[in-house]
Amino acid sequence: MKKKTTIGLIQTKVFENQNKNLENSIKKIKNAARRNAKIICLPELFLSPYFCQTENHSKFKLAEKIPGPITNIFCNLAKELSVILMISLFEKKTSGFYHNTSIVINENGKIVSKYRKMHIPDDPGYYEKFYFTPGDLGFKSINTNHGKIGSLVCWDQWFPEAARLTALKGAEILFYPTAIGWHPKERKKFGNSQLNAWITMQRSHAIANGVFVAAINRIGLEKVKNKKIQFWGNSMIIDPSGNIIKQSKSNKEEILICDIDFRKVENTRQHWPFLRDRRIDYYKGLLKNPEDA
Amino acid sequence: MKKKTTIGLIQTKVFENQNKNLENSIKKIKNAARRNAKIICLPELFLSPYFCQTENHSKFKLAEKIPGPITNIFCNLAKELSVILMISLFEKKTSGFYHNTSIVINENGKIVSKYRKMHIPDDPGYYEKFYFTPGDLGFKSINTNHGKIGSLVCWDQWFPEAARLTALKGAEILFYPTAIGWHPKERKKFGNSQLNAWITMQRSHAIANGVFVAAINRIGLEKVKNKKIQFWGNSMIIDPSGNIIKQSKSNKEEILICDIDFRKVENTRQHWPFLRDRRIDYYKGLLKNPEDA
After folding, report:
1. Phi then psi dihedrals of residue A2, to 5 deg
2. Cα–Cα separations (whole angstroms), residue A8 to A11, A59, A81, A247, A262
3. How far is it, in rounded angstroms, from Cα B166 to Cα B118?
4. Residue A134 contacts residue A112 (beta carbons within 8 Å)
5. pLDDT tens-digit map of A87-134
6. Chain A residue with minimal CA distance to B123?
7. Which of A133, A165, A282 to mutate to test the interface with B (most CBs of B within 10 A)?
8. What angle do CA B275, A139, A290 make, to 5 degrees?
9. Can you list the domains of chain B with their CATH numbers?
10. Annotated catalytic, A222?
């Protein structure tokens, strides 16, 4: 296992045309690889505008089989560039059954992990429960040649349980492909507080678990009929003490390249030994709902 | 159940003389009550300097029976002022068996809850495992006439599990009596990052659970032989969206008085419905240790 690696987070705008998104992402992946990134992660569902703004049956045609033609493209690319790719896709498992899925492709072009988003939101403008069945594969850590990594997806980032379980399985970097933004009408009143809460939660996962956290968001204003989301960017990498070590702007396409020293994980956990002191003998209530715990 | 209450957090310096600490705390409790606080909380182990800076057998004589002479004083005071008091004590359960305990006394002067600190630190200068057996009563929420409240203690604040379990049991304000500070030698290099991590974790508990969080710390430089801790104050109250609504300085005795509107809990949880989406069917690994999960 290597002691260091370099990761690349690709913060993009997303266009109406899927081929354009595909070309754009391939170009940016190549750019990140040239800059020495060994693990490259793209935002949630980066191949299309965020279709969950409305409940629209016609959008199911965007779903992909895994493996399938789209994953084949990225598998070939990973092999060509000799990098690890983390790719978020609208997965068609079978007829009438769909997931929000993140895969890890290794530097030999093989899909080595599939994670199906476990926590599914349903809020005005984020109608994901309409499209996605909650994940059925549990939480994942993958041992790669460039480090032990875990992939979670967007809404998962509000759940300490998801981060904890992925870290307990061994992951030393938690990746969160994301699609989150402001409702333009709410932005003035709540925008700062919302963005700040989002950042705070991810820093807390780094601290509580002594791991690196990488969040990768899209940017841009996307409109679907009279609905709008201003995706807020702010892709970032957080060290195991909770310090933000790289951060993108809210309105700019950007490729964040960041060196990761895995020795910081062990060092932080020796100085802040939270894993040592968990009271697993008294945590059964975590498997229950409010008032039943 | 009332829809609003007022809480009072007493950020104090602690003196060598226990009687002086007792008098000081009674005076400040009366001050908070005059200012309409209905739930008043003091810092962790506020009756003595933080003796866990060293392992010293003579300090076991500081331990109290609960109920006992000290709790009787606070029970009478709670009744006299008609307030709820949250009091942190070094508890002697029985011969050779001690806890770091927080009690809730209601406005009739009755002890209505006892919480024994579940997560016990052991770090240079914080040798708590020498003094305290980890708690054996689990996590607690108490229905009072002034709101549903939970008491956790200091090191617990680094564990998302503790906050989650207390919230799942119904608590709408999580209180953290605390004794945390800087090692003066480390302060320049790590001080900001440490304080920031501490604040971040508590904000994350508020956000993840949609609850108010109140942290109550001591201030002052305490020396034991060649050991020193500069307690960093920064007592604070955080709303269910993670915003800090009141905060003390790091070097000043202060009584934070804060109005709490419990309707914010329900409102926040409707807008950020995290409790709705927990995957209790996939959380069993939380009852395991690293690599076993």
Report:
1. -70, 150
2. 10, 30, 13, 12, 16
3. 12
4. no
5. 999 999 999 999 999 999 999 999 999 999 999 999 999 999 999 999
6. A271
7. A282
8. 20
9. 4-287 (3.60.110.10)
10. no
Ranges assigned E (strand) in B57-195: 84-94, 97-105, 111-116, 142-144, 147-151, 173-177, 181-182
End-to-end CA distance of chain B: 40
CA–CA distance from B162 to each of A42, A55, A208, B159, B248 (Å)? 33, 37, 12, 6, 24
Query: Quick check: is A154 catalytic?
Result: yes
Q: What is the mean pLDDT of chain B?
A: 97
Contact B290 A203 (CB under 8 A): no
Chain A CB contacts of B292 below 8 Å? 168
Task: Identify the CA nearest to B182 among candidates B174, B173, B191.
Answer: B191
**Neighbouring C-alpha atoms within 13 Å toward the C-beta of B27:** 10
Is pTM beyond 0.90? Reply is yes
| Cβ separation B165–A285 shorter than 8 A | yes
Here the ipTM equals 0.97
Stated length of chain A: 293
Q: How confident is the model at residue B1 (pLDDT cuts 50, 70, 90)?
A: low
Task: Please name the member of A158, A279, A287 whose beta carbon is closest to the beta carbon of B208.
Answer: A158
Q: Which of A59, A128, A154, A222 is catalytic?
A: A154
Residues B193, B194, B198, B204, CA torsion sign: positive
Of A56, A61, A51, A109, nearest to A85 by C-alpha is A109
Residues 13-52 of A with CB under 8 A from B: none
CB contact under 8 A, A286 and B164: yes
How does DSSP assign B9-26, residue by residue?
Answer: EEE-B--S-HHHHHHHHH
Number of neighbouring beta carbons within 10 Å of residue B41: 29
- Give residue B2's pLDDT: 75
Instruction: Please report which residue ranges of B104-182 form alpha helices under DSSP H.
Output: 128-131, 160-168
| Chain B residues closer than 8 Å to A278 by CB | 119, 159, 161, 289
Taking alpha carbons only, the member of A100, A102, A103 closest to residue A119 is A100
Question: Measured between alpha carbons, how far is B293 from B281 in angstroms, rounded to an integer?
Answer: 14
Q: Can you tell me the distance from the alpha carbon of A268 to that of B63, in angstroms, rounded to the nearest whole number? A: 33
Q: Is B169 on the interface with A (CB under 8 A)?
A: yes
Per-residue pLDDT of chain A (293 residues; tens, 9 = 90+): 679 999 999 999 999 999 999 999 999 999 999 999 999 999 999 999 999 999 999 999 999 999 999 999 999 999 999 999 999 999 999 999 999 999 999 999 999 999 999 999 999 999 999 999 999 999 999 999 999 999 999 999 999 999 999 999 999 999 999 999 999 999 999 999 999 999 999 999 999 999 999 999 999 999 998 999 999 999 999 999 999 999 999 999 999 999 999 999 999 999 999 999 999 999 999 999 998 88
Residue in chain A lying closest to B207 (CA):
A197
